[in-house]
Design goal:
Elements: E1 5-6, E2 13-14, E3 16-24, E4 43-49, E5 56-57, H1 64-68, H2 79-96, E6 104-107, H3 115-120, E7 125-128, H4 132-140, E8 145-146, H5 152-162, E9 165-171, H6 180-190, E10 191-202, H7 204-209, E11 222-223, H8 226-234, E12 238-246, E13 252-259, H9 273-284, H10 296-316, E14 321-324, H11 328-337, E15 347-348, E16 366-367, H12 370-375, E17 379-382, H13 388-394, E18 404-407, E19 413-414
Parallel strand pairs: 6-7, 6-9, 7-8, 9-10, 14-15, 14-17, 15-16, 17-18
Antiparallel strand pairs: 1-2, 3-4, 4-5, 5-11, 10-13, 12-13, 18-19
Helix pairs in contact: 5-6
Length: 415
């Protein structure tokens, strides 16, 4: 009998499974050559849904300190993501009239991929990045960054030392915090009473609709709808006033909130029509009821069957397959499908920090992208499918030897 787990948003017992992906190692726990013969720790990927508040969540099987203290994900290696961040900064400068007297704070600021654009515009910044190795790189680039986890206490301390911010941003971090309420209170502590908080995260509506089950991994503690994100922010004294639907990461939302007791500079502080639209879309899809979340496990099995059957048939036909990318989502997919070196001999990645390492669980080796031209595989399996267009463009040269691209989600597609 599994131990009772409490909902991180409302405290009720979690007794209902959303989807169970079995056991997997932490998705960013890449291995060096001298580690692949040692034991690895696998943890459950049993995602629950709260019958009371409807938050879809993964219990904190792995502590955040273990996941994020030394991290190998660098945002700047995605050209399209850096451009996405630049457009956001420009839009926010115009919307909030930001300048030399303003302050932008970013939680989980990574290597400065976003704040570098604010620095270029002469806007003071502060990055808060828990991974010390990545914070160091950001500081070397001239982007003021401190290393700790954001919560109410650290947010209050940062605001006391640096002043409160006109804009507090957090991209792909709200789902990554096990104590979502304390994190939200950290956001409130950092922002001015008339300031704005912007959070961007994958939308549960799109995860279900587009069968994106590989975005489930141990560092993603919550799978958020606008409804559940709003509940978490309200508990910290923030109210949602606007939302944008985005294509990034397979379908995200950017949620803007302001202090409940504040008076925002950029408008009356009442929710826009778009907030109502997204909430209605969620309700229409069944996400405002427990029953509306059922059936996802069957979709997951279909994806697994399609991919494994394709790789086995390719091998029978004498075709070679290589992977592109070593993202966290890829490790969920490969481990859940039981894919090892016999079906996928190697993958490549743009990040030099991953070269010479091996994927967790599957022990598939990681090479530099140049290895593709040296081995000329018949098929290239794109693991970061959210960047498929960017990757297909980057790898245009592979068409010279007739290579085809394979995308596993939302359904198997050969390009």
């Amino acid at each position: 009998m599994a131990a009772t787990v409490s909902c991180r948003l409302c405290g009720e017992d979690l007794n209902r499974t959303f989807v169970d992906l079995g056991m997997s190692p932490p998705c960013e726990s890449f291995l060096s050559a001298d580690q692949i013969d040692a034991g690895e720790t696998f943890y459950p990927l049993n995602v629950r849904i709260c019958d009371n508040c409807l938050l879809v969540q993964l219990p904190a099987y792995v502590a955040a300190d273990d996941v994020f203290s030394d991290y190998l994900y660098f945002s700047s290696y995605s050209t399209s993501w850096v451009e996405h961040a630049r457009r956001f900064v420009v839009d926010m400068q115009e919307r909030l009239d930001l300048g030399a007297e303003s302050l932008i704070v970013e939680a989980a600021s990574n290597d400065g991929y976003l704040l570098q654009h604010a620095v270029a515009l002469g806007i003071p910044v502060l990055g808060i990045e828990p991974a010390g190795n990545i914070a160091e790189i950001a500081n070397e680039k001239g982007i003021r960054t401190e290393s700790y986890f954001l919560g109410e206490a650290t947010g209050t301390d940062a605001a006391a030392r640096h002043g409160k911010a006109d804009l507090v941003a957090g991209n792909n971090v709200f789902a990554h915090v096990p104590d979502i309420i304390d994190f939200a209170k950290g956001l409130r502590a950092l922002v001015k009473d008339d300031g704005l908080v912007s959070l961007e995260f994958p939308h549960l509506l799109r995860l279900i609709e587009r069968r994106q089950y590989d975005t489930i991994y141990h560092e993603h503690y919550s799978y958020l709808s606008l409804k559940t994100a709003s509940l978490a922010l309200e508990k910290a004294g923030l109210k949602v006033v606007d939302v944008q639907e985005l294509a990034s990461h397979g379908g995200s939302i950017r949620v803007f909130s302001t202090p409940i007791d504040g008076a925002p500079k950029d408008g009356p502080g009442e929710p826009t029509e778009l907030v109502g639209k997204v909430l209605q879309d969620e309700a229409d899809a069944g996400l405002h009821t427990v029953e509306g979340h059922a059936g996802f496990a069957n979709e997951v099995f279909t994806i697994k069957a399609e991919l494994v059957e394709f790789l086995i048939q390719a091998q029978r036909d004498g075709k070679t397959v290589a992977g592109y990318g070593a993202p966290g989502k890829g490790n969920t997919l490969l481990n859940h499908c039981g894919i090892r070196e016999d079906l996928l001999p190697y993958t490549v990645d743009r990040s030099p920090h991953k070269h010479g390492l091996f994927l967790p669980g599957t022990h598939i080796p990681i090479f530099a992208p140049e290895h593709l031209a040296e081995t000329r595989p018949d098929y290239i399996l794109i693991l970061p499918w959210n960047l498929r267009d960017e990757i297909v463009h980057q790898l245009g040269y592979a068409r010279e030897w007739g290579a085809k691209f394979v995308v596993p989600i939302p359904r198997l597609e050969v390009i």
